Amino acid sequence: MRYRRNSEDRGNSLPGSTGWLFADLMLALVVVIVMVAAVQAAPPEPPPPRPLPKPAPPTTTTNTPPPPPRLAREPVKFDVFLDYNALFANDPVAVGAARAAVQAEMWRLGGRRAGLALSFGAASNLAIGRGTAAASRFNEVVLQSMGPQFQDCSYRGYFQGSKGQEMISVEIFVFES
């Protein structure tokens, strides 16, 4: 059986038209929302470029700092014989004799400043600590009191093996200029 539609069923009715109107309005609303979103999503304009800072004018001074002082490659070497017990006791006679022995060798520095003084305390191989202590004590009470030539000097005390003779071997590295 076939069913025939009459003119009222063809969509001319008010409820049928309302559905299409609602669908068209929804489509228009979606189009408007998409357009507004596209306009708001556009990236902002970049800020104008800042002007570059002007470079500083070149300096015209030709004064360059002097090069740092350099130590001579070969040290001034000499030996000082003394009694370690008197040195440790700070005996003024022994300390004065050691200072006089160093003073007698000062001409070898040629008026140049000392940069590094290495002292080697001689002692037997069984008394390594005694030789090192004597060298360090010699640096403290003798070399550090020798005046302005030793003002900026660094001091190191070391052990030097010997067969019982108490002496300090000194190596002084002076600045070249």
Feature tags:
177 residues; alpha+beta; 60s Ribosomal Protein L30, Chain: A; 4 strands; 34% helix
CATH architecture group name of the largest domain:
2-Layer Sandwich
Tell me the Rg in angstroms. 49 Å
Main beta sheet strand tally, sense and closure:
4 strands, mixed
- Secondary-structure content class: alpha+beta
Helicity, as a percent range: 25-40%
Percent of residues in β-strands: 15-25%
Shape: elongated
- Low-pLDDT ranges: none
The number of distinct β-strands equals: 4
Number of domains: 2
Tell me what the structure shows:
The protein is α+β, with helices and mostly antiparallel strands. The chain folds into 2 domains: 26 residues; 99 residues, 2-Layer Sandwich (60s Ribosomal Protein L30, Chain: A), CATH 3.30.1330. The chain is 34% helix and 18% strand. The chain has a 4-stranded mixed β-sheet. Strand 2, helix 4 and strand 3 form a beta-alpha-beta unit. The model has no long low-confidence stretch (mean pLDDT 83).
Short account of what is shown:
The chain is an alpha+beta fold and 177 residues long. The chain is 34% helix and 18% strand. The longest helix has 27 residues, at 14-40.
